[in-house]
Amino acid sequence: MGRAKLAAAAALAAMALTACSGGDGGGGGKPTSGHPAQPQGGKPSAPLTKLAVPNGFDVSKGWEQTLAWMPEDARTTPVADAPRSEAVAYLDSSEDGYVPTLRDVRTGAVRWRGAPWQPPEAIEDPAGKGVEIPDVVVAGQGGREYVVAWAHGKSGGDGFTKGREVVEAVVYPADAHGSAVEPTRKVTLLLSDSGTAPRSDVEVRDGGGAGLLVTWDKGAQGASVDLVSGHVRSLPSTGKTKTGCVDTCMPGSAYAAVTTAGAVIANDSGGFGIDGGWYSRDVRPSGVPATHDFAQNGVVEGGTGGELVARWHPVAKGSDGDPVWAVHDAATGKVRATVSCGTAIPDEDAGARLSPDGRYLVFDTVAFDLTTGKGRCFAETPTHHAVRFVSVAADGTAYGTTPDGTPVLVSLPTGSAVPQPHGLQLPLTLYPDRAIFATADPSGPHHLIIYPRTH
């Protein structure tokens, strides 16, 4: 959805993956349960892969899961963390279809498996960004977590008719139990009729506490899905709203979140808010002007769940001064934390990540303490390389890399940064006492490896 896109499990796919060695986790053809390092009863099926990781993780214990069915050029990795449930969700495969699965992050025990699911027939990606495969996302609503497997494809049709372009989603409560679990809801969203050119940039993600947000065409089109009732609500084209615009709507508006207060629309050129609700000019950080160079100030650059990360220009005209970065509550627009930081506009793959307890948020080269409202900047300076963050722990330890790939550990409470040896794998997701690492052999399968934290 352009610059306003949110990141959920995208970091698992966007992180640079390196070759891994060790045991084969199975997968492909039949569902597998991966490799607990210390299973209860029986013999281990293979030794746990031991990666070179920063201090603080025990590589002799843990478990791993291999996703051998994934094509090498897949656009996404069908894995999502479920922080409230302290579990990890992923798509396995079987001869009868894809199998949504949830595993306990501590023990590796399978909490439940879905019944095999046959998604709609895949459509060639019109944007040419690789193979589009079914994916999985974890979303919240009403204080509960839900696991949603989804796919963009073609429904119906035969050798003569072309069928219709749809997004199909199957919904499971994260606290389900058993095997061959049936979804509580199956939702089909029509994108276009037969013969119409395929939609581009289809994304399904946690909307920010009010179910799912489905967007396409760079986020300009969207719909929300109620995970309890299965109700689908079409959102008006962003070009037909006033939110994110000065007088008339400008190109580049996109849906950034869907909250209990309404959908957040963000404009690439500046301005964001909820139609009929709050607007960015009224919730801007202290001292920041409402406009910059005759456009609305404030550009949403990313976010996660119910938080938005916005970049604000400090002056009304010209280009002097470092941008002010702010975290906003998506439902109210309220500023939660700010920092002045001269970082460049982040890459499209930059994703916001929260610590397990929700206190710290990192995005690209900025980091925030949402309790104190303070932020820290790790953009490039005359004496230091920039650090782009990957993840952050509850104690404020953030993990990132410099442009040349040097791993760096940063203490957000103190601001100290310690470079690490080249070649270390950094955790992609952190739980209170576990962390997920991902590796991929260029000629082999994708692995998820979970190690305990030692401090």
Give your account of this protein's structure:
By secondary structure, the chain is mainly beta. 1% of the residues lie in helices and 41% in strands. It has 1 helix and 36 strands. It has one helix spanning 10-14; strands at 35-36, 63-67, 79-82, 87-94, 97-104, 110-114, 121-122, 135-141, 144-155, 164-173, 178-181, 185-192, 203-206, 212-216, 221-225, 232-235, 253-259, 262-267, 272-274, 291-292, 295-296, 299-304, 307-312, 324-329, 335-340, 353-354, 360-363, 366-369, 374-377, 388-392, 397-401, 407-411, 417-419, 429-430, 434-440, 446-452. It has a 5-stranded antiparallel beta sheet, with no helix packed on it. The longest helix has 5 residues, at 10-14. It starts with 9 loop residues before the first helix and ends with a strand. Residues 1-45 and 244-249 have low confidence and may be disordered.
Q: Which structural class matches the secondary elements?
A: mainly beta
- Output the strand order for the largest sheet: 1-2-36-35-34
Helicity, as a percent range = under 10%
| Count of DSSP H/I helices | 1
| Assembly context of the chains | single chain
Give unreliable regions as ranges.
1-45, 244-249
The N- and C-terminal alpha carbons lie at a distance of: 38 Å
Mean pLDDT metric: 84
Strand content: 35-45%
- Shape designation: globular
Number of strands: 36
Describe the largest sheet.
5 strands, antiparallel
State Rg.
22 Å
